[in-house]
Amino acid sequence: AHEPIAIYAGGLEQIAVSQFIDEEADYNFEPLEKLLQISPQRILCLSRDELIQQCGGAAVVAIVLCRANAGLQETTQTAEPMARRMNIVNILCRLYKEYSKRISAKKFYKLIHVCRCVGLSETSQLSLHWFRTFFDQELSESTRKFNPNRMACHLVVWMLYLTPSLQLDFSLLQEQLSLSAARTREILQYVGCSCTSKMVAGSDPELVAQLKAPLKFGMPKSSG
Questions:
Q1: One digit per residue, pLDDT tens: the chain, 224 residues?
Q2: Which pTM value belongs to this model?
Q3: DSSP 3-state helix, strand, coil percentages of the chain (rounded to 5)?
Q4: Distances in whole angstroms, Cα of residue 177 to Cα of each of 11, 53, 67, 110, 174
Q5: Is residue 129 assigned to a domain?
Q6: How many whole angstroms separate alpha carbon 224 and alpha carbon 220?
Q7: Whole-angstrom distance, CA of residue 168 vs CA of residue 67
Q8: Residue 192 and residue 214: Cα distance in Å, rounded?
Q9: Residue 216 forms part of a structural domain
Q10: Residues 59 and 93: beta-carbon distance below 8 Å
């Protein structure tokens, strides 16, 4: 395999382990599962508000529209696992927004804080995985500090993984996370994307990124 997503597929498990996702019964977002089974033409005719309501967030809308424009439609067998993986985007966005606004040199968190934010129990393997991945050990193994740069990079990679051609408009993620255009572009370029800004008549500007270079799992040096 020579495609970036095939070469680095194992790295995706750093973001959300497949087994852990499937173990969380509550992580299937039913409105999204139903949406993915309707025709791409119908999806493209829905309003922005309708899409956000059924997708759970603007970032997932971008993925759904990308797949619809490519003519992709899920079956009754594939809709649930795809909806689960798309819903991970909603949850990671929630984590980012919750903890990036609290970022400070002296702010530390325990696993229970993450569990409450994502709606999982303290025995959840997925919440423990995220706690260890996106929160750096500081005072002890159980007391950690949030790393927003690492989460942003991993979130971008996960979203690209859900597209058919590793290309996506990230303006909706930028909006949902309240990032600047410069910051969004920095993150995208860091993980190996080429970026293009597009003006669309009657719509907000698009920030289209395509993964061409090898995936990077880490964080840019800038903290802005």
A1: 445 445 445 566 667 677 777 777 666 789 999 999 999 999 999 999 999 999 999 999 999 999 999 999 999 999 999 999 999 999 999 999 988 876 665 688 899 999 999 888 888 888 998 999 999 987 777 889 999 999 999 999 999 999 999 999 999 999 999 999 999 999 999 888 999 987 766 667 789 999 875 555 554 554 43
A2: 0.86
A3: 55, 10, 35
A4: 24, 17, 22, 23, 5
A5: yes
A6: 10
A7: 10
A8: 6
A9: no
A10: yes
Q: Is residue 218 part of a domain?
A: no
Q: What are phi and psi of 8, to 5 degrees?
A: -110, 20
Residues 6 or more apart in contact with residue 27 via CB below 8 angstroms? 21, 84, 87, 88, 91
For every residue of 19-67, which 3-state class applies, written as one string?
Answer: HHHHHCHHHCCHHHHHHCCCCHHHHHHCCHHHHHHHHCCHHHHHHHHHH
Residue 132 CB-half CA count within 13 A? 10
CB 126 within 8 A of CB 111: no
Q: How many residues are present in the chain?
A: 224
Do the Cβ atoms of 211 and 221 come closer than 8 Å? no
71 in any annotated domain: yes
Domain count, the chain: 1
Round to whole Å and give the CA distance between 97 and 92.
Answer: 9
Domain that holds residue 156: 4-211
Which amino acid would we find at residue 113? H
What gap in Å lies between CA 167 and CA 33, rounded to an integer?
A: 22
Residue type, 183: R
